[in-house]
Amino acid sequence: MLAVRGEPPGDQESAAMRIAVCVKQVPDTEGRLRLAADGRWIDDEELQMVVNESDEYALEEALQIAERTGGEVVVFGLGPARVAEALRKCLALGAARAVHLLDDAFAGGDAMSTGRALAAAVAREEFDLVLTGSQSDDDGFGATGSVVAACLGWPHAWLVMGVEIEDGGTAKVTREMESGMNEVLRLRLPAVLEIQAGINNPRYASLKGIMQAKRKEIAAVAAADLGLDPGAVGAAGATLEVLSVAFPAAVGGAQMLEGDAATAAKALAEALQKEVGVI
Amino acid sequence: MAKVWIVVQHRDGKLHRMSREAVAAGQALAAALGGRGEAVLLGSGVDAVAAALAGYDLDAVHVADAPALADYTPGGYAGVLAAAVAAHGPSHLVFAHTYQSVEYMARLAHDVGGSLVPEIVSFEGDSEGIVWTRPVLGGKLTARVRATGPSPVLVSVQSGSFAADDAVAGSAEPCPLDASAAAVDREILGVEAAAEGEQIDLTAAEIIVAVGRGVGGADKMGAVEELAKALGAEIGASRPVIDGGWLERDRQIGSSGQTVAPKLYVALGISGAIQHLVGMKGSGTIVAINKDAGAPIFGVARYGIAGDLHEVVPELTAAILAAKEAAG
Ligand SMILES: Cc1cc2nc3c(=O)[nH]c(=O)nc-3n(C[C@H](O)[C@H](O)[C@H](O)COP(=O)(O)OP(=O)(O)OC[C@H]3O[C@@H](n4cnc5c(N)ncnc54)[C@H](O)[C@@H]3O)c2cc1C
Ligand SMILES: Nc1ncnc2c1ncn2[C@@H]1O[C@H](COP(=O)(O)O)[C@@H](O)[C@H]1O
User: What pLDDT is stored for residue A6 in this prediction?
Assistant: First the structure.
């Protein structure tokens, strides 16, 4: 069933894994943010766009599994033309190909409609695993991967901190729980794993990788290519609409100590001594 | 008619802390929509939890009690709830925004053809229905959103947004819920500590100096260590610091790390995302140093300095040492 690319190392993880990774491009929000003119989102014109943090970990995990099993990694990204940059970065890191869900109809989606579109794109090929990040740094739904799983009818796990592919078509998955504990599970494959930041140490792109990425394929697909009704994707298929965004009102609020670093630090030390009594 | 279901989480016969907050949220939502709210409980041998829920002012406590639900699994929970939604037609399902609920609620939303509004912190009614508020961009902004898809609307309530004590006491009748649609989709092999080796117990520390991504790297920790030494503090961290390998996992503070409440908590280069705040907002005095004057951490801090921590921290260490010396 599966084409073996490269020699499997022949240890416990033997079957070559074909892995889809969903990668979202998000604004880097370090620094001052400005609201968009319509007040419904931030003005991201001047912001740098980056690969969503947990997705970097998802890609790294996929690459490591594929390296161990002799499999292949394909990245999927939904969004406007600029998303190709994020996909190109993933190709430089070692993904074999990319699929860009590129269509005006996809705009304004939520976890439900974006997950549906991603699932339809993934379903056009045969995969053993779909890896996503656990949460996007902008919308923060923590849900798109679960929707992909639901659409595909596959089992899934959220907040994955470890993956071990087993013989016999299962994976041993470590899942984060609250309060510093992990749960160890066994899932049947194919499955969707929503990878939590911190699971591994993502690699940096090598110069060779960057050069090779230029020749790798980024295939653009529109809603019609996926057999999806435009009413089922993007804003039209979403179940949530953002009315407005605002900076949160500071509740309570700190007493800000002004002046240069030395002055402010001195004032703080005094406060800690006099009022808090910890010095 | 609105019918608000509050789906609770429990362990060892007790309601999860955040589920008690969800009961308060669900009751408030039901009241806003002109109803009373109903609890939904899944598990095996959960009479004690059902009894606790029966002490709230609710229209019903639906209990799906079956061996297949002894351990939580997404397929087990979503399967039973999907069948229950089809049978009873709730308009809203309210969950606590826990690692358990979040994992299966999107699957459930898909399976019942409903709408999904994760991580709400408040809501208000208007002429067109309910407007929900939820954090976006790591808590740097809050968004007002409306559910635009079909009923039911599934929402999860973020920790600390509603007070458990606001849940209205009363009495409710437990009634059985069909559990035959549980479709267990994972095998649970065990539970283990996330950090390896011996663990540092930050809960015992009187003073914690906590570093965030803003510290900039493992090689920039020197000045922070000096400050911790001057204060006699333990060093803690936000998650990215741990994920980046700058400190060991057992120093993580927050929802997936330790929950601490020292006398003094000094947050350096930490933005103040909710997952961090839940682990430290009970601290006596919180001090924050952050170059972004709008960082949410200043919302919980008593004293703040808007500035570059690399400039402020050495000055602070010097000022503390000077103050100590003057005090003898
Ligand atoms: C399921 C889940 C569980 C999580 N569990 C946890 C958890 O247990 N603990 C936790 O902490 N997080 C947790 N997180 C992550 C959390 O959502 C945030 O991403 C994280 O807390 C952000 O850490 P930070 O504040 O250090 O980084 P950022 O949000 O990136 O903030 C860095 C801050 O440093 C400031 N800064 C930068 N440079 C300087 C400088 N030179 N001087 C002063 N300030 C500077 C910036 O202004 C910014 O405010 C979890 C997330 C998820 C989805
Ligand atoms: N537009 C998108 N393109 C590709 N993957 C996405 C997109 N949106 C969400 N995802 C994936 O779903 C995960 C969870 O996102 P969210 O549900 O928005 O928190 C992300 O970490 C990505 O892996």
Answer: 41
Among the residue ranges A99-103, B166-170, B196-200, the one predicted with the least confidence is: B196-200
**pLDDT at site A14:** 61
Identify all chain B residues contacting A179, using CB atoms and an 8 Å cutoff.
Answer: 255-259
Cβ-based neighbours of A28, under 8 Å, separated by 6 or more: A47, A48, A49, A50
According to DSSP, residue B128 is labeled T
Q: pLDDT tens digits for B60-107?
A: 999 999 999 999 999 999 999 999 999 999 999 999 999 999 999 999
Atom 2 of ligand 1, residue of closest alpha carbon: B275
Distance CA(A25)–CA(A51), nearest Å, equals 5
Q: A164: helix, coil or strand?
A: strand
More confident residue, A93 or A252: A93
CA-nearest residue for atom 7, ligand 2, is: A24
The DSSP symbol for B205 reads -
| DSSP code per residue over A175-209 | EE-STTEEEEEEEESSEEEEEPTTSS-PPPPPHHH
- Residue B163, chain A, CB below 8 Å: the answer is no
Phi, psi (deg, nearest 5) at residue A8 = -65, 140
Residues with Cβ within 8 Å of residue A153, at least 6 apart in sequence = none
Provide the pLDDT confidence category of residue A7 given band limits of 50, 70 and 90: very low
- Is residue A136's pLDDT more than 70? yes
For residue A267, the SS3 value is helix
Q: Does B226 touch chain A (CB under 8 A)?
A: no
- One-character DSSP codes across B237-279: E-HHHHHTTSS-GGGBBSTTSB----SEEEEES----HHHHTT
Identify the sign of the CA torsion A57, A62, A68, A72: negative
pTM: 0.95
Q: How confident is the model at residue A42 (pLDDT cuts 50, 70, 90)?
A: very high
ipTM: 0.96
Pick the CATH number of A18-237 from 1.10.1060.10, 3.60.15.10, 3.40.50.620, 3.40.50.2000: 3.40.50.620
**Domain ranges (residues) in chain A:** 18-237, 253-279
Q: How far apart are CA B109 and CA A224, in angstroms?
A: 25
> Tokens 């589920």 map to which residue?
B19
B200 at the A interface (CB within 8 A)?
Answer: no
